[in-house]
Design brief:
By secondary structure, this protein is mainly α. It is built from 9 helices and no strands. It has 2 domains: about 1-90, Rna Polymerase Sigma Factor, Chain: A, CATH 1.10.1740.10; about 110-178, Winged helix-like DNA-binding domain superfamily/Winged helix DNA-binding domain (Arc Repressor Mutant, subunit A). The chain has helices at about 5-15, 20-40, 45-60, 70-90, 105-110, 115-120, 125-135, 140-150, 155-170.
């Protein structure tokens, strides 16, 4: 299931080769950060999830059994870290204001379609947002997304369908959601 390069890097990393783990990080860093950013909606939280993902992966690499691709295992960790951050965000009081010093009002007034979609995604329940991010934005199959989320593929399909319906309500009528 894993690529030959991932198999070799995991084996070497388990033996303590820091360069091998660095290679795994390099191979997957962009996708981990992208997933975290899409789920969390801001760079600071995405960076936290990114760092926590690789710390957790490093600590638990010996537990990786190879039953799935290394990327699936790693993205599942990233998904769990992102969910943890979402949960903690709901528990902590929100004191941020758009009137804080350093806020770029001009940039906030000039939104593009990508920003609108990201803002609309942030209004969805976390499971819908995750399913749409994995399936529609990142291009994983329903089965791959289900494996990462730890739920049946049919549930992912339901979350994607309902999430798209919610997005249609939030976005302008002319926005295409595929």
């Amino acid at each position: 299931m894993m690529t030959d390069s991932d198999i070799a890097l995991v084996a070497r990393a388990v033996e303590g080769d820091e360069g091998a783990f660095q290679g795994l990080m390099e191979a997957h860093k962009d996708m981990v950060y992208s997933m975290a950013y899409r789920i969390l909606g801001n760079a600071e939280d995405a960076q936290d999830a990114f760092q926590e993902t690789f710390v957790s992966a490093f600590r638990n690499l010996k537990k990786f059994r190879g039953d799935s691709k290394f990327s699936t295992w790693l993205y599942r960790i990233a998904l769990n870290r992102s969910r943890d951050i979402l949960s903690s965000r709901r528990r902590r009081p929100q004191h941020e204001s758009i009137h804080e010093e350093g806020f770029d009002h001009a940039a906030a007034d000039s939104t593009d379609a990508g920003t609108d979609v990201q803002e609309a995604l942030s209004t969805l329940p976390p499971d819908y947002r995750t399913a749409i991010t994995l399936r529609c934005i990142m291009g994983y199959t329903y089965d791959e997304a289900a494996d990462m989320m730890g739920i049946p593929a049919g549930t992912v399909k339901t979350y994607v369908f309902r999430g798209k319906d919610e997005l249609r309500k939030v976005l302008s009528p002319g926005a295409a959601i595929t």
